[in-house]
Amino acid sequence: MRQHHIPFGLTAALNDGRLNAWHLTIYFALVELFKRSNQDGPFSISRKKVMELSRIKAAPTYHKYINELQNLGYIQYHPSYHPKKGSSVRLVFRI
Known about the structure:
- The chain is an alpha+beta fold.
- It has a single domain, classed as Arc Repressor Mutant, subunit A (Orthogonal Bundle), CATH 1.10.10.
- The chain is built from four helices and three strands; from the N terminus they run ααβααββ.
- It has a three-stranded antiparallel beta sheet.
- Strand 2 and strand 3 form a beta hairpin.
- It is globular, with a radius of gyration of 12 Å.
- It starts with a helix and ends with a strand.
């Protein structure tokens, strides 16, 4: 069922003038990790994997744009400060 909602979330993100290329590359990386997780709710991510998929090289850039995606309502992000435990993300799809 979640597969049905993914195109709507991507369409909303692509049409949102507040988002730039950095927002979109991170968002698309999160969508890909969501699909790989085979979960319907929150899923675990690592900064390293998101940065790799989105081709972002600097941690400050990652943190800036993932926090902005949260502030704009595209994701719910709960960082983990544990070195082995991933952060939790939930994609908020807009229809």
